[in-house]
Specification:
Its main location: membrane. With 741 residues, the chain is mostly helical. It is 84% helix and 1% strand.
């Protein structure tokens, strides 16, 4: 708000048009689009090219002081309450692979790499879900073989059961992929760019869709028992036994999947750190040409300034020569960037085609490996050994695919580095031609100096440029060390978040298990088998839910880093500037020392604010994770309640069946006693029985006649009362209040 309209317009134009500031630009525009002190300094120096110019590594404490005067709102605006809203709406390149990210603008690199990390987590979830479905089918196959030992594996009934489950899983996965694809297109009006707000919204919808898919799989698994009993007339005891075995083995499979997910999530993190390292290397190579240009132009400016002081060159001549050199040098630097982007796109396209071809071959080979393993191992291994071996095959396949992608990333990065070096060498040759043309042809004609004097001046200029380039190299090494420190800090934060996620899952597991045990303890009356089935089923669903929440927690951590990337870039540039000031000169006056101390205080302040705001963002995003954990807990509670209800219903039916069986036994015993007594029938006994029988019949008939007479008298009385009422009311008045009909 305190910026002048002129400076704001220039800064906005520079950020949009990607203008390369030709003189003394120490830092690129900040990642969050906020103002940079170097922009104001570069603007002032670029207006008058005849002013003495210094190279990039020279001290910029003056620029810091000037920035504090002219851009007094820089600090406060960055830390305003709306800064994150502004950052959430910022667009960055939608890179679908790491090679594509390598040719992005440097300000988009961090977000692109984090976005790729989210894609890797989604890909890992898909691979583990595929393994889970495959293990489910194989476990069901083994359970059916145990349940139907007399049936052959190619029996029609056997195949119908497996085909039904396989088709249901296939339809379930197809439906999920359609939903995920639709969500992926979110915010893709311009398919090349995406905002961080769109990324967070997509991740929330992904989480909801994956939870729905997980619940659908639970329902499919729970319906197997009813399916066997209804469609294939399997006895309830056999179907229940199959479900117990299926649940127990799926719990073991979930344990394998969880261990694999933890390891591969850490591998994905290492891969992301390596990608950040390689991307920084390519960025450094691309920026090297700008440092070379600035240092050479600074040396040229200094040499021409000496000629002007000696009176051999007028101010106008110097200004014209410097303008020509600026235009020529920065034109070549711009051509370097343009050629790198164009040829880099070709390298990316070739890399993607090569990777797609190799991945297709690998997929066919792995499918054949799976079929071969299933044909050989299932009939010869115990169930536990089979699951472990099958999981090992699938995990090895995933690692092979990941290694293939990593190798392609490294190969493409090396190709990009070679391209940078090639373009750098050709550009340096052109720069040398510019210098030779200036000193060996242009200056002798303008100044009247001899060729030997111009050659001596050219050597001095080149030596000056070499000294400045040496300072630039030392500063670049300091930048690299600071970047390495930043990577280590980020990795430490990732590991802390992973540990906190593990603690949260342990808490949720203990909480849910404790509730189920308390409920079952209060109910009582259930058999040990029913209680064990309920606990096993709950354990399976809980393991699956916690594994899903663990992967969602990794995504939440990634989104946290994406939100903080602008702040971290600002702090990193301040640290780089502080390192530059410390190494620029060994002797500083009082004013420079004060400015250096102010810069150090600014670094400490920004680090403190980054830590504070990082905690706020983590808390805000963790609320989403906790809300999703509550939703998963609600679904888990519903399924467990249903299982307990079915167990209680079965218990009641068994109790009723036993009661009816007891009554039936008492009746049979009475009949048996009567039959035994009937063997000893006498004439007196028969007369007594007949007389008693007739007495009972006579009594029943008398009672019946008496009830019949009473009923007739009642009906006759009601008819008389109704007749009297109608007579009193008259023929045209309806009877109100009495139910005549």
């Amino acid at each position: 708000e305190c910026e002048s309209a002129f400076n704001s317009n220039i800064t906005a134009f520079a950020l949009k048009a990607k203008v390369i500031y030709p003189i003394n630009q120490k830092f690129r525009p900040l990642a969050d689009g906020s103002s940079n002190p170097s922009l104001h300094e570069n603007l002032k120096q670029a207006i008058l090219p005849n002013q003495p110019v210094e190279a990039s590594p020279s001290s910029s404490l003056g620029s810091l002081s000037q920035a504090e005067k002219e851009d007094c709102s820089s600090s406060s605006s960055i830390h305003s309450t709306t800064s994150y809203d502004r950052f959430l709406s910022r667009t960055f390149v939608r890179a679908n692979s790491f090679p594509e990210a390598l040719i992005c603008e440097s300000v988009d690199l961090d977000l692109c790499i984090y976005n790729l990390h989210l894609k890797d987590l989604l890909h890992l979830d898909k691979a583990l879900r595929r393994e889970k479905h495959m293990m489910f089918i194989q476990i069901l196959k083994m359970c059916l073989l145990d349940l139907l030992p007399k049936k052959k594996s190619d029996d029609e009934l056997y195949q119908r059961i497996l085909s039904k489950q396989e088709n249901d899983l296939e339809e379930l996965e197809k439906g999920l992929q359609v939903k995920l694809s639709n969500t992926e297109m979110l915010g893709a009006g311009d398919s090349e760019y995406i905002t961080l707000a769109d990324v967070e919204k997509k991740e929330r919808e992904y989480a909801e869709q994956l939870i729905d898919n997980m619940e659908a799989f639970w329902k499919q698994m729970e319906n197997i028992q009813h399916f066997l009993m209804d469609q294939f007339k399997c006895s309830s005891s056999k179907a229940r036994q199959l479900m117990m075995t299926l649940t127990e083995r799926m719990i073991a499979a979930e344990g394998l999947l969880r261990d694999s997910q933890d390891l591969q999530a850490l591998d994905t993190l290492e891969r992301t750190m390596c990608r950040a390292h390689m991307a920084k290397m390519i960025e450094s190579l691309k920026l090297q040409i700008q440092e070379e240009t600035k240092c050479r132009l600074a040396a040229l400016s200094h040499g021409l300034e000496l000629l002007t002081i000696e009176g051999k060159l007028s101010g106008r001549q110097k200004e014209e020569l410097l303008t020509q050199q600026h235009k020529a040098f920065w034109g070549e630097a711009e051509r370097f960037s343009r050629d790198f982007a164009q040829r880099g796109k070709g390298l990316v396209k070739a890399s993607m085609a090569r990777q797609a071809e190799e991945m297709a071959k690998l997929t066919l080979a792995q499918e054949e490996e799976e079929r071969s393993f299933l044909a050989e191992a299932q009939l010869t291994m115990a169930p536990g050994e089979f699951l472990q071996a099958f999981h090992g095959v699938l995990e090895r396949q995933r690692l092979t695919q990941s290694s293939l992608e990593e190798e392609e990333d490294v190969r493409t990065t090396e190709a990009m580095a070679v391209l940078c070096q090639e373009l750098y060498r050709s550009t340096m040759e052109i720069f040398q031609k510019f210098v030779d043309l200036l000193f060996l042809e242009t200056l002798p004609g303008v100044t009247g100096l001899s060729r030997a004097e111009c050659e001596y001046l050219r050597q001095e200029v080149q030596e000056n440029a070499a000294r400045q380039l040496g300072q630039s190299d030392r500063f670049r090494k300091q930048q690299w060390e600071l970047f390495q420190d930043l990577l280590e800090q980020d990795k430490q934060v990732w590991m802390e978040e992973h540990t906190l996620s593990s603690v949260l899952q342990m808490h949720l597991q203990d909480d849910h298990e404790g509730i189920v045990h308390q409920v079952l303890g209060r109910l009582g009356g259930l058999s040990e088998e029913s209680t064990w089935c309920i606990l096993q089923g709950h354990d399976l669903l809980l393991r699956s839910a916690l594994r899903r929440l663990a992967l969602r927690g990794s995504a939440i951590t990634t989104l946290t880093h994406m939100r903080l990337s602008g702040k971290k870039s600002l702090l990193q540039e301040l640290r780089e500037q502080h390192a530059l000031e410390q190494g620029s000169s060994q002797c500083l006056d009082e004013h420079q020392w004060q400015l250096l101390r102010a810069l150090e205080a600014r670094v400490v302040e920004e680090a403190s604010r980054l830590e504070e705001e990082g905690q706020q963002i983590r808390l805000q995003l963790q609320q989403q994770l906790l809300a999703e954990a509550q939703e998963v807990g609600r679904l888990l509670q519903q399924h467990t309640e249903q299982a307990i209800g079915q167990a209680l219903l079965g218990h009641a039916r068994n109790a009723a069946t036993k009661s009816r069986a007891k009554d039936r036994d008492d009746f049979q015993r009475t009949l048996t006693e009567a039959a035994v007594e009937s063997v000893y029938v006498t004439s007196t006994g028969v007369d007594r029985l007949v007389q008693a029988y007739y007495q009972q019949i006579r009594k029943v008939m008398e009672d019946h006649e008496e009830r019949r007479l009473q009923h007739l008298e009642t009906l006759q009385g009601e008819r008389m009362e109704n007749y009297k009422l109608r007579t009193k009311q008259g023929p045209g008045e309806p009877s109100s209040g009495t139910p005549v009909a």
